[in-house]
Write a structure and sequence with these properties.
By secondary structure, this protein is of the alpha/beta class. Helix content is 35%, strand content 18%. Keywords: Hydrolase.
């Protein structure tokens, strides 16, 4: 088996068998895979043959023990976000390639789930892959490079965007912008807005994510 370039916690399929699909959970700035793998138990019952993996981002956050970042997030300056996502993208891409190869699966059997900066990564990397992923779920995030998004699209997996309308970290305007730009590029985008929710994931958002993942990862019709 090839060695992954990233590493982090994983949860084997509830069925006890060989994975038939994979969900990759991408954490936010200053967090780690151990945090986001906590979403997996909520979905395991509906996705019994799914391997859940939550890699730590490639960089440590200075002065924050246990904190990782996809890139240094000093500000939400558009040029800095676009450059950061572009720099981190090859590492995540190579990790996804190795993960699929290790388990003998194809892109259409893998879904990305991101939170905050992890959503920026999912929305940047997923559509730039040559073969379409099963789907992308983005919690509390935004497009890192909306101006360059359409020009980078190579595939169009279905997307679910979920956000709290009281988010003080990534304002809900980022949710609306991402939805608008992806619609313009021809993506099938569904969405869920949680009223009064700040920068977090609530039970309504978890249930929406479960329904979406169960649909896009359903076994192919023979």
């Amino acid at each position: 088996m090839s060695a992954p370039l990233l590493d982090g916690p994983r949860l084997a399929p509830a069925s006890g068998g060989t994975p038939k699909q994979i969900v990759v959970l991408l954490h936010g700035y200053g967090s780690n895979g151990a945090d986001l793998i906590g979403l997996a138990p909520h979905w395991r019952g509906a996705l019994k043959d799914t391997l859940f993996v939550a890699p730590n981002a490639p960089e440590r956050v200075p002065g924050m023990p246990g904190g990782f970042q996809w890139w240094g997030l000093a500000s939400f300056d558009r040029a800095a976000l676009a450059a950061g996502a572009a720099r981190a993208a090859p590492v995540l891409d190579a990790y996804l390639d190795a993960l699929l190869a290790d388990h003998g699966l194809t892109d259409d059997r893998l879904a990305l789930v991101g939170f905050s900066q992890g959503t920026m990564m999912a929305l940047h990397v997923g559509p730039r892959r040559q073969r379409a992923l099963a789907g992308i779920v983005g919690y509390s995030g935004m497009l890192a490079d909306p101006a360059g998004f359409a020009g980078g699209v190579r595939s169009k997996p279905p997307v679910l965007l979920i956000h709290g309308d009281a988010d003080p970290v990534v304002p809900v305007a980022g949710f609306h912008e991402a939805k608008r730009e992806m619609h313009r590029s021809g993506f099938a985008v569904s969405d869920h807005l949680s009223r009064g929710l700040e920068h977090s994931v609530d039970m309504d958002g978890l249930r929406a994510g479960e329904r979406f993942l169960a649909r896009v990862l359903a076994p192919p019709v023979a």
